[in-house]
Amino acid sequence: MTASTSVAGNNVTSFNVLGDSSVDCGENTLFYPILHHNLSLIPCYNGSDSTLLPHLLAKKMGLPYPPPFYSQNGSINGLLSGLNYGSAQATIMNPSSQSHQSLNQQLRQVFETFQLLQLELGEGSAKDIIESSVFYLSFGKDDYLDLFLQSSSSVMGKYSGLEFASILVDQMVNVMRDLYDANVHRIICMGILPLGCTPRIVWEWRNSTAGDDEGRGCVAKVNGLILQYNTMLEERIINLNSELPNAHIIFCDIYQGIMQMMNNPQDYGFEDPKTACCGLGLYGAMIGCLSVEMACERDSDYIWWDLYNPTKAVNALLADSAWSGRPLFDICRPISVRALVFTPPSYSN
């Protein structure tokens, strides 16, 4: 019993997503409108996950976008093509509050799903589904926003930027190992976007001495922290691919992809690379997106949707590039998402 695919030659029957607001608009986060404290209640256009990068990639794979984990109705058929375990504001490190699911909490939900598949279908069929799946991981942004860059947080005084990045990367690698041990062999791991270019960070740091990032209007100090994390994560993924037999893990460098758009906005059809489409005040960053009525008329003219999240137009360019390597060359390494999807599953004994 397997889910069907509609792309000829596609070797993926199940697409599972873990992450933060880059994969969830609040639909999978209990009490999201009440507990969300970053002042933006609608982190994507019309509050729909259909504007997000993993949704656009699922479409390219010929798969339905995985429904939220909390929308399950108990039917085994609802699990066969994958689930979205992501939660807006999710962090790699365990959160102090229970308003969202951390990386490890989402991983536990994944293993609960695996156990249910085994009970309902038998170990052999469940194993086939898991081995023919692709997992998508997108974390880290909120660890920096909520833990490291907050003056009220004890984390910034406790760790250097390199130490903090190392802690986060270690946890990401542990999760990829755990997934591999559970017969997940194909993983898409996303880097963090250029957080120092997001409207809210630029607004908050506008009078600081952190420095402008080569005239782009970005905060160099913040982007430097993100680059440390991304570089370390990619290096560890290279090592994992060498170490783990039949592992196919790719790193997608959305930092470099968005920076290409920031550097040459008009080449990619953008008129305003600094201001949020949905928000109020300088850079649209004093108050976040509380209602779609606040949004600009043409979100396709903007790189940023709200305080920290890109527009659908940016996600569409990233999806095209992650899938085929164009127009943003080689943002996913060592192979494209398309090549990963068409890689035959590595069935273990």
Task: Kindly list the characteristics that best describe this protein.
single chain, 349 residues, alpha/beta, 7 strands, disordered N terminus
Topology:
Elements: E1 14-19, H1 32-35, H2 53-61, H3 103-121, H4 123-131, E2 133-138, H5 141-148, H6 155-158, H7 161-181, E3 186-190, H8 199-204, H9 220-243, E4 248-252, H10 254-263, E5 272-276, E6 302-304, H11 312-324, E7 332-333, H12 337-341
Parallel strand pairs: 1-2, 2-3, 3-4, 5-6
Antiparallel strand pairs: 4-7
Helix pairs in contact: 2-11, 3-4, 7-9
Can you describe this structure?
The protein is built from twelve helices and seven strands. 50% of the residues are buried. It starts with 13 loop residues before the first strand and ends in an 8-residue tail after the last helix. The chain has a five-stranded mixed sheet. It has a two-stranded parallel ribbon with strand order 5-6. 38% of the residues lie in helices and 9% in strands. The protein has 349 residues and is α/β, with parallel strands linked by helices. Helix 7 packs parallel to helix 9.
Brief account:
The chain has 349 residues and is α/β, with parallel strands linked by helices. It contains 12 helices and 7 strands. The N terminus is likely disordered.
Structural class: alpha/beta
* Portion of residues within helices: 25-40%
Question: How big is the Rg?
Answer: 19 Å
**C-alpha end-to-end distance:** 19 Å
How much of the sequence lies in strands comes to: 5-15%
Question: Can you list the strand order of the major beta sheet?
Answer: 1-2-3-4-7
Q: What is the overall pLDDT average?
A: 87
How many beta-strand elements? Answer: 7
Low-confidence stretches: 1-6, 31-38
Shape: globular
SSE arrangement, N to C? EHHHHEHHHEHHEHEEHEH
Counting DSSP H or I runs of 4 or more residues, the number of helices is: 12
The biggest beta sheet is recorded as: 5 strands, mixed
